[in-house]
Amino acid sequence: QVHLVESGGVLVQPGGSLRLSCASSGFTFSNYAMTWYRQSPGKEREFIATIHPTSLDTNYADSVKGPFTISIDKAKSTVNLQMNSLKPEDTAVYYCNGTSLLRTTPHAYWGQGTQVNVSS
Q1: Which of 6, 17, 107 shows the shortest CA–CA distance to 64?
Q2: Residues ≥6 apart with Cβ < 8 Å to 90
Q3: CA dist 63 to 4, 28, 44, 59, 60, Å?
Q4: How far apart are CA 65 and CA 82, in angstroms?
Q5: Binning pLDDT at 50, 70 and 90, where does residue 9 land?
Q6: How many CB atoms lie within 10 A of CB 26?
Q7: 58: Cβ–Cβ under 8 A, 6 or more apart, which residues?
Q8: 109/63 Cα distance (integer angstroms)
Q9: Per-residue pLDDT tens for 24-71?
Q10: C-alpha closest to that of 109 among 42, 24, 44, 43
Q11: What sign results for the dihedral spanned by CA atoms 102, 104, 106, 111?
Q12: Cα–chain-centroid distance for residue 20?
């Protein structure tokens, strides 16, 4: 059974930092691009960052370039999101996604999300 479980979401003050993690199991980690998304009430789901599992190439949304860093720990099948200089507008549910890199079997998996609240 496939599982993606996010953790690390908590209440943090503006300007603070958080590190989110997404531990995955049930699939071949190296065959999936790992991506973070977020969604705030009343807004569409927003792409945050993605990383290729073997090349480690990354891509970021313009809104988070600099403050946010995505990384993976292949040994632990885990993707992380380091979030610095947090702002109230970063408040959202953050979701982990694994998208298959194999064109013969296109599919994706989603985690349950973790709540991040940035407020004073």
Answers
A1: 17
A2: 38, 83, 116, 118
A3: 25, 30, 15, 12, 8
A4: 11
A5: confident
A6: 12
A7: 49, 50, 51, 52, 70
A8: 24
A9: 999 999 999 999 999 998 999 999 999 999 999 999 999 999 999 999
A10: 24
A11: negative
A12: 7
Contact 109, 11 (CB under 8 A): no
Q: What is the pLDDT of residue 116?
A: 96
pLDDT at 8 over 90: no
**Are the C-beta atoms of residues 20 and 114 closer than 8 Å to each other?**
yes
Query: Which structure tokens are listed for 111?
Result: 């985690």
- Pair 67, 55: CB distance under 8 Å: no
Q: Are 76 and 48 in contact (CB under 8 A)?
A: no
Instruction: Show the tokens assigned to 9.
Output: 């979401």
d(CA 38, CA 87): 14
pLDDT at 29: 94
The token pair at 97 is 């996604």
